[in-house]
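Is this the right way to post structure tokens for a design question? Let me know if I should format differently. Anyway, here goes:
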């Protein structure tokens, strides 16, 4: 009799781990998806938070000074960024920081106008190859473009980066043309003047009047 009881006890002991494993399997398989309308209100609100759009970044505070530019990280970008930085260097490096932003704005206004090439490099190099028939003189004056003033280039590059990032305020009222105060091109008599910043005067192209 003792032998029989001992045999039953040993057999039960051997089966217990398997039964425990089976119970765990049943527990794992018993998880059910909860319908959205069955979620507690607070949990459902937490769930929705996962899909809320991120808050837009606060606009960068900008000061149109060399000190502010020097505090900004080194500017980098693609070919169009480099075209804009180069244009600012040759066209406006001697201008005030505000004036440099204004020149950058004109170039970007041209890209958006539909009456000029649809890229920064396209706008800046328009007419290049025909001496003194280009839009930006430095690209067709027959002289090689060499950047000798590294510090000045680093600064205008930061202006280009900030302009592309939409950091600056609008300051030329949609101008697509400008000239220095030292000259007065014929088109300035028919285009609408929009701003005077630094050594430049800015204009909006009045196509209807200019064609008369």
């Amino acid at each position: 009799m003792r032998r029989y009881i001992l045999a039953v006890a040993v057999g039960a002991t051997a089966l217990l781990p398997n039964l425990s494993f089976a119970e765990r399997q049943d527990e794992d398989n018993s998880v059910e998806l909860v319908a959205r309308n069955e979620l507690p209100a607070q949990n459902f609100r937490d769930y929705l938070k996962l899909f809320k759009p991120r808050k837009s970044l606060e606009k960068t505070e900008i000061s149109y000074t060399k000190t502010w530019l020097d505090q900004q990280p080194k500017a980098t970008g693609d070919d169009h960024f480099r075209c804009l930085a180069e244009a600012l260097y040759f066209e406006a490096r001697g201008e005030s920081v505000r004036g440099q932003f204004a020149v950058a704005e004109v170039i970007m206004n041209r890209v958006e106008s539909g009456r000029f090439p649809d890229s920064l490099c396209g706008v800046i190099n328009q007419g290049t190859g025909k001496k003194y028939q280009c839009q930006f003189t430095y690209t067709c004056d027959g002289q090689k473009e060499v950047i000798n003033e590294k510090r000045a280039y680093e600064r205008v590059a930061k202006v280009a980066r900030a302009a592309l990032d939409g950091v600056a305020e609008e300051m030329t009222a949609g101008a697509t043309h400008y000239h220095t105060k030292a000259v007065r091109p014929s088109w300035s008599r028919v285009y609408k003047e929009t701003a005077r910043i630094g050594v430049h005067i800015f204009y909006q192209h009045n196509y209807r009047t200019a064609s008369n």
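Format looks fine. Someone answered above. Worth noting: The first helix runs from residue 2 to 29. The longest strand covers residues 192-197.
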